[in-house]
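User: My instructor asked us to take a sequence, write out its structure as tokens, and then describe one feature of it. I'm not sure where to start. Here is the sequence I was given:
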Amino acid sequence: MKDFKELRVWQKAHALALEIYQMTRGFPKDEIYGLTSQIRRASVSVGANIAEGCGRRSDGELNRFLQIARGSAAELEYHLLLARDLKLMANDAHQGLEKKLIEVQRMLTSLVAAVAARTAELPAKPGVRKALAANSQSR
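Assistant: Let's start with the prediction itself. The structure tokens for your sequence are:
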């Protein structure tokens, strides 16, 4: 696989992690080792697992790390819901982050499908080829 920094899904995951760090600066100090840490860790894990998967030697390993990234994205989705419900973030801030997170989740799902199709050496459906091509291009 090519350089992870060229993948649109990684670029969007990285931008989301930066935004998460900025947003959590306003969380109460007593949450620094609790929810703040969990949200930040999960957001960083998405991009880090994409990067690690790209650094592996096989599509099977790439797929495994993309699945881990998807799990981290789902974990982040829950943490953001919890932060909203605990009134640590405004509803509009939550909606903006959730929208960006859902986009990353969809892109990960498409990339997993594309890698799986490539691994199986079956002709990919047009939508899967498009997803692989889109994830390979820079912004």
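For the description part of your assignment, you could build on this observation: The chain has a mean pLDDT of 90. Try explaining in your own words what that tells you about the chain.
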